[in-house]
TrEMBL record:
Keywords: Cell membrane, Cell wall biogenesis/degradation, Lyase, Membrane, Transmembrane, Transmembrane helix. GO terms for cellular component: plasma membrane. This is Endolytic murein transglycosylase. GO terms for molecular function: lytic endotransglycosylase activity. It is a single-pass membrane protein.
Amino acid sequence: MSNHRSFDRERYEDELHTDPIGYRSDEGSEFHRAVHGSGPREVGRSRAQVRQERAARKRKRRGRTIGLVLGLIVVVAAVGGGYAVFDRMTGGSGAPEDFAAGNAGPSVVVRVHPGDTAEQIGADAVDKGVVASTGAFMGAAVQSSSISSVQPGFYLLPSNVPATEAVDALVDPSARVGSVVISEGRQLHDSRDVNTDAVKKGIYTLLSEASCIDTTGSGTPTCISNQDFNAAGAAEDSSTLGVPEWASQRVSTVPDRDRQLEGLISAGSWDFDPTASPTEILRQLVSDSASTYESTGILTAGASSGLDPYQTLVAASLVERESLPQDFSKVARVIINRLAEPQKLEFDSTVNYALDTTEVATTDLDRATVTPWNTYAMEGLPATPIASPSVAAVEAVEAPADGDWLYFVTINTAGETLFTRSYDEHLANITKVEDGFLDSGR
């Protein structure tokens, strides 16, 4: 970005007529001479005309100031109204209706949409009983230096309070509720690390934690349990959960209903209404995730990969769990090459998935156990995705790297991975694995 600032003629002319503190702006003043020089006045203009022009400039500057202040209360980037605030600032009569202090009621959830102005937020706050009028809310918002920092999302605000209290509550970061971050490779259910015994929280657990709200101020929040999310996600009719048409047929045949939404909630930052039902929350997340996946071209990528959209999602979840981003496109190519042979994928991540465990390597017994996901025990892709893939992983499957590789092995904790088509070379690559890296924790 250039630091060059273009010449703003209108702004320059305004500044010439600004009255700085400590100076008079009449023609004989020191300030006037410093700016205009000491030459003769313009001929043909009366003092009355000069005063009228000066008054017009002041009105113009005042209008700009009001416009600037109103602009500051825009939350994202939308242009909003502001009659109530404008009326107060310009000396209009009558204050907007406002609640008295000391009569706060139960807290309620107010949503801030992308692009909302303070006026629109105020209207929702009125509907929810937070404030008495939009005008009162805007009047308080325009005086808050933090209102412009409010982000789209859901906020827990006390009801029946003065507008200043409502705005103070809104700009408090602790008011935000229903906000959750789902990392790449996250699964629906909790999983346990075999080596450390640490539990990695699943999506349903994260949603449960993000759903907790205290509407009464008792200090004891109410939460939707992860069991409730799991029960909602296992519904027979997947259409109630926002499952897209391109995934519905495969989802209807998933062998374990508890896992039917696996991979259909994409990685990312999410906001949801914690007062909604588990089914409503999941429907929002699944529907919005489908839009995210579709934006990558998943509906048409099969022309080059040979995979339908749901298979692309499944393969992307394997890419996510088996490799680092720098190798996504190569691992995607290995998957497609093996499916074309056909040859078993033999990914340890698919063995771990059915066990709800995590480890770099698996045991002979685990690999021999037949499950709808264990790619050591069957050819083809697992029954469902095994995690939520990143957009990068999805795009890697849609456009994999060129190569004839059939094997790969990661040889150290830095993620260094070797690829080959030759099985003998693959065996030689395995000898390069650092001591203990691929040992099972059992």
